[in-house]
Amino acid sequence: MAPNKDFIKKLGVMALGSRLKRLNDRLNKSVSIIYRDLDVDFEPGWFTMINMLNDNSPISITELAAELDLTHPGIIKISNELAKKGLVKSHKDKNDERRRLLALTPKGKKLVKKLQPTWNNIATVANQLLDSADYDLLKLIGQIEAELDNKEFHKRYYSFTGG
Fold first, then answer.
1. Of 20, 36, 104, 128, whose CA is between 20 and 30 Å from 30?
2. Angle at Cα 64 formed by Cα 60 and Cα 68, nearest 5°?
């Protein structure tokens, strides 16, 4: 028997997370190609943190994690990658030496300024893609996120199964 052309799609709602991850990977791959073609050493996964730092530097790791809804280890991993590229610097908070503050370096600020037109174009193309859909995907995602904020999926599962 020949394998299904798109087994994940065939699984339907049971593979929702896999399908969304696949879409994310596909979009990130295309954006990576754009950065490569521009000869810019930048990863799509850095976008939210770089922009948060651009708008809110300096900011603590705890605040970044809360604002971006990422784990502390996730923030530290990305900030270390950005620091290795010379885009972010870290220093102890003068008021609380236990806290590390992150800020863009001059090189990071220069890169943000350079990439802003590209990001604007990416947003336009993404909006064109979303406009081609029969429904407002971002609104739908927001509604699902709000529902999960109200009651996480595993709690819904246990309410349903009585477990």
1. 104
2. 175
Domain extent, residue 26, equals 22-123
Non-local (6+) Cβ contacts of 23 within 8 A are none
Per-residue pLDDT of the chain (163 residues; tens, 9 = 90+): 556 678 988 999 999 999 999 999 999 999 999 999 999 999 999 999 999 999 998 999 999 999 999 999 999 999 999 999 999 999 887 888 778 899 999 999 999 999 999 999 999 999 999 999 888 999 999 999 999 999 999 999 999 999 8
Q: How many domains does the chain divide into?
A: 1
Whether residue 58 is contained in a domain is answered as yes
What's the pTM value of the predicted model, to 2 decimals?
A: 0.85
Residue 103 near residue 58 (C-beta atoms within 8 A): yes
